[in-house]
């Protein structure tokens, strides 16, 4: 494992623990040359999963793309990186549990938004505005009204 700081190809495992509900192993490593500590994840290599984009193109499923989108939408919000990674884990598990070789970006986006709306409403709106490609203020306002309605319903239940 190459050190991300000095690129030395030697590290020792400092700590190892299960991650993603036992489907991965999280390892803390320390570079034997410079002492830099970094984290790696070991996962079972799953069968390739193709994502069908809106224009019909197909590409391999990428956790990183979901992660980058969530990081952008949660920028300057009180959302921990661990929470974002949990959403990515949940979405990937949900998509893979479908047992399909192909899944649409639409379905992936819907799964992401299901988790994100409960985590941070502003991050949700940011993600939804890009994902749903709000064409005008009316569509944006409708989405905001649905969130306010859900908040009011949740307040009445408490």
From TrEMBL:
Purpose: Negatively regulates transcription of bacterial ribonucleotide reductase nrd genes and operons by binding to NrdR-boxes.
One function term, GO molecular function aspect: DNA binding
Keywords, alphabetical: ATP-binding, DNA-binding, Metal-binding, Nucleotide-binding, Repressor, Transcription, Transcription regulation, Zinc, Zinc-finger
Ranges where the ATP-cone domain occurs: 49-139
GO biological process, one term: negative regulation of DNA-templated transcription
HAMAP family: NrdR
Pfam families in UniProt: ATP-cone, Zn_ribbon_NrdR
Identification of the protein by name: Transcriptional repressor NrdR
Cofactors (names): Zn(2+)
Recorded coiled-coil stretches: none
Family to which this protein belongs: Belongs to the NrdR family.
Species this protein is from: Vagococcus entomophilus
Zn finger region (unnamed): 3-34
Cofactor: binding details: Binds 1 zinc ion.
NCBIfam families linked: transcriptional regulator NrdR
